[in-house]
Amino acid sequence: MPRKHSDKLVAKFTIRVDRDGQPVQKRLCDMSGDEVLSALEWHLQIDKQMQEKAKGPNLLIEALRQYGVRGDDPPAAKVAAFEAIGTTQEALSRGVQAIEAAGGAADAAGRLMKLVLAAMPQLDQHPNMTIKEGVARFWPQGHLTG
Fold first, then answer.
1. N or C: which end of the chain has fewer CB within 10 A?
2. Residue 141 counted as domain residue
3. Strands 23-27 and 12-17, how do they pair?
4. Cα-flanking dihedrals φ and ψ of residue 26, to 5°?
5. Is the per-residue pLDDT at 116 higher than 90?
6. Which ranges in the chain belong to alpha helices (H)?
7. Residue at 119 is within a domain
8. Percent of the chain having pLDDT more than 90?
């Protein structure tokens, strides 16, 4: 009889990128321990990259705030501030997209970590165990190969 998986464990996550640069995704319930660790590493790395890309836009938004510009101000009210700090509405829009991408990457990494930990409640009994050790010992889909 096939095993029934929680809806949360059927969520797909990227485990790596193929030769063509395309993400390879797999359902969490189908991942081996090695794949779980690869997925965690990949998502945390993407989160780190997106947070780094969002630093400049966050500084830009802070500069606009310090200049007195609010998000709901009409475009004409922003022109002087844009000129004063040397930016444009287009640059601000790209910046907001970078910040949103960073938020999405952080959400995905956090969601994956939460699901992995939920799949291994035994870790609660081993507070000093690393995630890698926990996956090797408790991951329901088998042990690590390496």
1. N
2. no
3. antiparallel
4. -150, 150
5. yes
6. 33-66, 75-85, 89-119, 131-138
7. yes
8. 62
- Structural domain contains residue 64: yes
- Residue 77: band (very low, low, confident or very high) from pLDDT cuts 50, 70, 90: confident
Instruction: Give CA–CA dist 128/120, Å, rounded.
Output: 14
b/e per residue, 51-86, with b = 16+ CB within 10 A? bebbeebeebbeebeeeebeeeeeeeebeebbeeee
Residue 13 in contact with residue 112, Cβ under 8 Å? Answer: yes
**Nearest alpha-carbon partner for 54 in 110, 105, 102, 89:** 102
When divided into structural domains, the chain yields a total of: 1
Identity of the residue numbered 42: W
Looking at residue 122, the DSSP 8-state letter turns out to be G
Residue 104 lies in a domain: yes
| Cβ-Cβ contacts under 8 Å for 75 (sequence gap 6 or more) | 89
| Domain hosting residue 59, numbered range | 7-133
* Whole-angstrom distance, CA of residue 120 vs CA of residue 140: 8
Q: What is the pLDDT of residue 36?
A: 95
